[in-house]
Design a protein that fits this description.
Elements (H helix, E strand, L loop, with lengths): L4 E4 L3 H12 L4 E4 L3 H20 L7 H6 L1 E4 L10 E4 L5 H14 L5 E4 L6 H5 L8 E5 L9 E6 L5 H13 L3 E6 L6 H17 L5 H11 L6 H8 L1 H15 L8 H8 L14
Parallel strand pairs: 1-2, 1-4, 2-3, 4-5, 5-6, 7-8
Antiparallel strand pairs: 6-7
Helix pairs in contact: 7-9, 7-10
Family: Belongs to the 3-hydroxyacyl-CoA dehydrogenase family.
Pathway: Lipid metabolism; butanoate metabolism
Pfam families: 3HCDH, 3HCDH_N
Length: about 280
């Protein structure tokens, strides 16, 4: 049997990455400390497979995929992985601690990737003794349905590490677009300021959320406007990412607007909570 692939974090993104890996034939170990996340993992994965089947994206055996994913709270269970995708919360100290743990637990040849939305990969690689084996793999949500992944390389990321990442993605039916390491990379350096500005437009009464998105969809031809995109990502994730960008760039345009902060405080997180800018 192939060495397993590890996924750290079993939330929305971690689950999607685990599903993508398992349907590609990889044994997967999902590490998450939360009892509820682990207890509901198989059911959430089953729901994801049903959706993928309805959309014509999966035709394999559900039971086989479900049995290939192991849920654990034991860090040592990652001691034989070939590759890890870290999908923890978007907080710099937490991710740095996770990378210290991964460096200590995982085999010395294992690639350590982060699915961070904005944290510079160099800050995480510096917490390990293997910076040449560290890179960013920014999957988009929902991961099983998105064919492209933003891959961030540092100055120290090795060519063989990029090759292994490319092979892993290709096996999942995905392709990577490689960019240099920087806060927010390309996608979220641009997208987060757009979402923040779109929320500010609503806050100031210039237009309601539907109208804001209609301008982007009808005038610019975007498939989805910035506020529906924000709801899909999760407004709590948007807020965390804006804080990271503000801290790492010092650019005030990433200061979250009051409306966005208030919505997260009220638990209006978007699709995951049943309502955000839209219901």
């Amino acid at each position: 049997m192939d060495r397993p692939v590890g996924v750290v974090g079993g939330g929305t993104m971690g689950l999607g990455v685990a599903q993508s890996l398992a349907t590609a034939g990889h044994p997967v170990v999902v590490l998450d400390p939360a009892d509820q996340v682990r207890a509901t993992g198989s059911d959430r994965l089953r729901d994801g497979l049903r959706l993928a089947k309805l959309l014509g994206r999966f035709s394999g055996d559900h039971a086989e995929v479900l049995s290939s994913v192991r849920w654990t709270a034991v860090e040592k269970d990652l001691d034989d992985v070939q590759f890890v995708v870290e999908c923890g919360p978007e907080r710099i100290p937490l991710k740095q601690e996770l990378f210290r743990m991964l460096d200590a637990v995982c085999p010395p040849d294992a690639v350590l990737a982060s699915c961070t939305s904005a944290i510079p990969i160099g800050l995480l690689a510096a917490c390990t003794g293997r910076p040449e084996l560290v890179l960013g793999m920014h999957f988009m949500n929902p991961a099983p349905l998105k064919p492209v992944v933003e891959v961030a390389r540092t100055e120290q990321t090795g060519a063989d590490t990029l090759r292994r990442a490319d092979e892993l993605l290709a096996g999942m039916g995905k392709r990577g677009i490689v960019v240099r390491d920087a806060p927010g990379f390309v996608s979220n350096r641009v997208l987060m300021s757009t979402i923040n500005d779109a929320a500010t437009v609503v806050q100031e009464g210039t237009a309601d959320p539907a109208t804001v998105d209609k301008v982007f969809e009808d005038c610019f031809g975007h498939r989805m406007g910035p506020l529906r995109t924000a709801d899909l990502i999760g407004l709590d994730t948007i807020l965390d990412t804006l804080h990271v960008l503000l801290e790492t760039t010092g650019d005030d345009r990433f200061t979250p607007c009051e409306l966005l902060v208030g919505m997260v405080r009220e638990g209006r997180l978007g699709k995951k909570s049943g309502g955000g800018f839209f219901r």
